[in-house]
């Protein structure tokens, strides 16, 4: 999927598709399972001052591995990213000038849309994914470890 990002914004084009996670090699490496689909939407628009913008939304359920119990769990992904498309690097304001901290894309007649989607999804994933509270099996494992050991029980008998 290749787009001309300047044209896409200028003509206010729209792309919408459901894409299997199998299409994203780098993403596949960090997932517990390559099952699942991402609902992807890209909108082009011309904003105030003829500023060219792209808005990318990605939604879906991904299988991540819990770093506490090492079991897979469903992670709900729902992100929206906005980019300003500029002609070249000199059009990107310095960090001090860009108070709103926009994200920029350089004009590219052959922009790989899937690469952009994959970058944004990877940025949105937690560094140390974990089950939410009680869903995590690690707690019951820890509880099992805390049970008195047979050795401890013997010690108690002896001391009586
Ligand atoms: Zn867990």
UniProtKB/TrEMBL annotation:
Protein's GO biological process: ribosome biogenesis
Source organism superkingdom: Bacteria
Cited PANTHER family: LARGE RIBOSOMAL RNA SUBUNIT ACCUMULATION PROTEIN YCED
Keyword check for Transferase: no
Protein name: Large ribosomal RNA subunit accumulation protein YceD
Protein task: Plays a role in synthesis, processing and/or stability of 23S rRNA.
Organism phylogeny: Bacteria, Pseudomonadati, Pseudomonadota, Betaproteobacteria, Nitrosomonadales
Keyword NADP: no
Family under the similarity heading: Belongs to the DUF177 domain family.
InterPro entries: YceD (IPR003772), YceD_bac (IPR039255)
GO cellular component terms, semicolon-separated: cytosol
Keywords from the named record: Ribosome biogenesis
